[in-house]
Specification:
5 strands, 5-stranded parallel β-sheet, globular, binds shikimate-3-phosphate, alpha/beta, 8 helices, Rossmann fold
Length: 170
């Protein structure tokens, strides 16, 4: 490993699962940016949003991105919103970044089971509303995700995605 590998994509696109296996396969450390923020702040992401607000979280996210980027070469799974702020692209530009793509239907199905931990989705009541919100957010965010150096559909078994990524970036 001679550089970081950054995984980006919408919430629920599989960044952490793929990232963990990719790091194992490459024999390098894995960092989940949300987990890093959680342990640094001593509070779950949901609580940081609720107690201190989103802009506090976004500042913290930026500081933590800089911090992990200055450390040992690792596979780094970003939060779904991390690439959507220009200041974070000051760190990500020119780096090995991969956009993990996932269909709107798959995202809705996955996130309908896991939305409680996600402050941006927690208040949504029906699956239809969840679908509409994901569609709206994805439309806004796609142009940022498309800045990644590589992209890959996460629609096959995880070990296959990992092997495809390794081939793609080597
Ligand atoms: C967010 C995604 C979350 C987390 C926070 C905000 C977003 O990360 O950083 O809830 O804006 O999309 P995951 O993509 O790991 O769920």
């Amino acid at each position: 490993m001679t550089e970081h590998i950054y995984l980006m994509g919408f919430m629920g696109s599989g960044k952490s699962v793929v990232g963990k296996q990719l790091a194992e396969r490459l024999n390098c450390p894995f960092i989940d940016l949300d987990e890093y923020i959680h342990s640094r702040e001593g509070e779950a992401i949901k609580e940081i949003f609720n107690n201190k607000g989103e802009s506090y979280f976004r500042n913290l996210e930026h500081q933590c991105l800089k911090k992990v980027s200055s450390g040992a070469y690792s596979v780094i799974a970003l939060g779904g919103g991390t690439p959507c702020y220009d200041r974070n692209w000051k760190v990500l530009n020119g780096k090995k970044s991969i956009y993990l793509k996932c269909s709107l239907i798959n995202l809705t199905n996955r996130l309908s089971l896991e939305k409680e931990e996600r402050p941006l989705l927690a208040s949504i009541k029906t699956k239809r509303d969840l679908y509409l919100l994901i569609r709206e957010l994805l439309n806004k965010r796609r142009r940022f995700y498309d800045k990644a150096a590589y992209n890959i559909w996460n629609n096959v078994k995880i070990p296959n995605v990992v092997e495809k990524i390794i081939k793609m970036i080597s």
